[in-house]
Amino acid sequence: MSVHKEIKRITTHVLQKMKVDGERISMLTAYDYSMARIFDDAGIDIILVGDSASNVMAGHETTLPITLDQMIYHAASVVRAIKRCFVVVDLPFGSYQGNSKEALSSAIRIMKETGAHGIKIEGGEEIIESVKRIISAGVPVMGHLGLTPQSIYKFGTYAVRATEEAEANKLINDAKLLQEAGCFAIVLEKIPATLAKTVAESVEIPIIGIGAGKYVDGQVLVMHDMLGINKEFKPRFLRRYLDLYTEIYGATQAYIHDVKAKDFPNDNEQY
Predict the structure, then answer these.
(1) What keywords were assigned to this record (predicted)?
(2) 217 and 249 housed in the same domain
């Protein structure tokens, strides 16, 4: 029987059981109360309060500008909406790279001020000390390897990562290090599907992919991409389930027309 039918609240234990049982994990980003409530009611397993809010909510070119305070605002809004799913929050750029004490302080702020269930952090061996310190304080940590958007200026491109043997081997090693440090799951972004399969089979914790193929334990998409609110972003891995841009555009034009034509409000829509 699906885990969906058995439990009232998703936890790290439930996510681990889903991997063992071969049940795929569903994950979407959300940044506000209203959308998070819909996703939770629909039965999503994990909501990621992503630093992608920097792009889709604030209009920045990269994820780098968003602050810890802004992430806490979005995360608290999401947590107030949910009853069932697991909520993970990105540690934003600049809140953990300096040293492990700063990383722990940032993670604790998120947990205390939002009520979230865990944090996500980008990187492998380079940030393993921070991962260990955060986990030692009792905070669940999700790793993130492959294309790591906070390092975009280092990479210089959003192209597929780990296509060369050396980088692929490092990614596999980093995944094992994150598991050994105590991470409960890892996101793999934009890497070859065969490599993602190798990673998923090499570790015992859930591997969640975005542009990492079908052989992993779950999938995550950015809400605005999945719902078709964005028009410009068209990577190969994206499947749009709605075209909300067109729907909202049309509804807005209809509203404008009715207001201009003095058709709204009509007699039944006033007091």
Answers:
(1) Cytoplasm, Magnesium, Metal-binding, Methyltransferase, Pantothenate biosynthesis, Transferase
(2) no
Domain of residue 102: give its range.
12-240
Would you say 122 is a known binding-site residue? yes
**Of 151, 156, 227, 223, the residue nearest 189 (C-alpha):** 151
Give me the residue label for tokens 């009792």: 138
Q: Specify whether 189 is catalytic.
A: yes
Q: What pLDDT, in 10s, does the model give residues 46-60?
A: 999 999 999 999 999
Q: Which of 61, 113, 165, 189 is catalytic?
A: 189
**Which pair of tokens denotes residue 186?**
């890892």
Residue 52 is labelled as binding a ligand? yes
Q: How far apart are CA 184 and CA 180, in angstroms?
A: 10
Give CA–CA dist 53/165, Å, rounded: 33
Q: Give the pLDDT confidence score for residue 1 in this predicted structure.
A: 47
Q: Give CA–CA dist 190/120, Å, rounded.
A: 17
**Considering the entire predicted model, what is its pTM?**
0.94
